[in-house]
Write a structure and sequence with these properties.
With about 170 residues, the chain is of the alpha+beta class. It has a single domain (about 5-165), classed as Roll (Pnp Oxidase, Chain A), CATH 2.30.110.10. About 15% of the residues lie in helices and about 40% in strands. It has four helices and ten strands, in the order E-H-E-E-E-E-H-E-H-H-E-E-E-E. It has helices spanning about 15-20, 65-70, 85-90, 100-105, and strands at about 5, 25-30, 35-40, 40-45, 50-55, 70-75, 105-110, 115, 120-135, 155-165. The strands form two sheets. Strands 1, 2, 3, 4, 5, 6, 9 and 10 form an eight-stranded antiparallel sheet that branches. A two-stranded antiparallel sheet has the order 7-8. The protein starts with a strand and ends with a strand. About 30% of the residues are buried.
């Protein structure tokens, strides 16, 4: 099945469910090397007059370096039959295994060079607009810090959605 381009406004998925329950892959890099990770934290919406997608990555994740080194990234979503592969991408490090080989996913590249996988059903191609790190002194609800026993605060990436690809 081929991808077709749609507008962000034409996404029919419940993004709360797609991100938190179905999971997504955050993928960055290029033809010379990429990494991907499963995530269940993120959002979509409007900011600075642009359609945006937000994702969060802990500093220990191998994917973080790929996100920092590249201007573009993708968020991709899959059918339930790929749950095992998504689990591999969320529990194994790209430092230790070749995730593409381990999952059998087929890398393809957006016009901007951002990688995603042919097996996806929905892909958001994003250009980084803003990056920051969570700062514990800014947690209004102090119990949020309980999510960080190792003090490994997430980096937040806000990206403009350049393309939406759907099967």
């Amino acid at each position: 099945m081929e991808f077709t381009k749609i507008t962000p406004e034409d996404i029919t998925d419940n993004m709360f469910k797609a991100i938190s329950k179905d999971w997504m892959l955050i993928t960055a890099g290029g033809a010379d090397g990429l990494n991907t990770m499963t995530a269940s934290w993120g959002s979509t919406g409007q900011l600075w007059g642009k359609n945006v997608a937000t994702c969060y990555i802990r500093p220990t994740r191998y994917t973080l370096g790929f996100m920092e080194e590249n201007d573009y990234y993708t968020l991709s979503f899959y059918n339930e039959k790929y749950r095992k592969q998504l689990n591999i991408c969320g529990t194994q490090s790209g430092r230790d295994i070749d995730k593409v080989k381990a999952t059998g996913f087929t890398p393809v590249y957006a016009n901007c060079g951002a990688p995603y996988f042919e097996e996806a059903r929905l892909v958001l191609v994003c250009r980084k607009l803003y990056v920051d790190e969570f700062k514990p002194e800014n947690f209004v609800m102090k119990s949020i810090d309980n999510w960080y026993p190792e003090k490994d605060y997430h980096k937040v990436f806000i990206g403009e959605i350049l393309e939406v690809l759907k099967k």
